[in-house]
Amino acid sequence: MEERGRREEALSRRMEELHRLEELIRGMEERRKADEAHNDIIEKRQKADEAHNDIIAERQREEDKYQQLLAERRQEDVRFQDMMADRQRREQEEQRTQRKRWTNYSPDYSNGQGDENDEEMKTLQLKLRLLKMEIAEKDTEAIKNKKAARQMAATSGRAIEPEKAGQTPQTPPTIQAREVPEIQVQNQQSRSRRRTDEGCYKCGQLTHWSRECPQNIAPNNGPPCRYPGEVYDGDRGSQRCQRRTGVPNMTHMPLTPWYQPQQ
Q1: FRET label pair with 1: which of 16, 77, 124, 259, CA 20 to 30 Å apart?
Q2: What are the residue boundaries of the structural domains of the chain, listed by start?
Q3: pTM of the predicted structure, to 2 decimals
Q4: N- to C-terminal Cα distance for the chain?
Q5: pLDDT at position 9, please?
Q6: Would I find Methyltransferase among this entry's keywords (predicted)?
Q7: Tens of pLDDT along 38-49?
């Protein structure tokens, strides 16, 4: 009996130890889960801190950009102020120069010297005009005298005798013949050559041009033809423009007659 009692006691002690071990294991498991949850919370907090740091860095960059723009704007304001100061300085210098000019000219205008100068200039211009008129009158008188002397010499058939022995006879000045430029001669030669070579486009004769043709002024000549070299044959009863053959240097035109309505 005693031995059985001892066994039961040992078994009960073992059962108690087993319960304690189970409680320890259960506590350790709960602690492990709590530690994992704590670690998760720490990781989330770290991520939140990193995101917060990123936001702070972005704000810092924006702040730096704003400061840079503000500094540039201040520099622009300084440059603008310098430009305005230079402009005001230039305007003041221009005003000073204008005042100096006005002060230099104002005594003349106040004393009336400018008006006197204008009057003097007008009188000088009038004198110059009178001198020119006198010179022109003298030139015309000299020309008339020369013409009269030339006419007298031509009618008498001899040179005018000098009044004194020591003087030379006054012969009228010789007027040089007006030279015809070579261009006009060339034009006349080319015109005569064209007269002999080409002739009239209307009647076919070689003695004149088409603009000098008698048919231009002839009565009942009829309306003008369309092509050069055609003649209006209204006298023959056909009342149409017909091309004449045998005209030299003519371009090849259509040979079909062009009928015109009777007017």
Answers
A1: 16
A2: 124-154, 199-259
A3: 0.26
A4: 172
A5: 83
A6: no
A7: 999 999 999 999
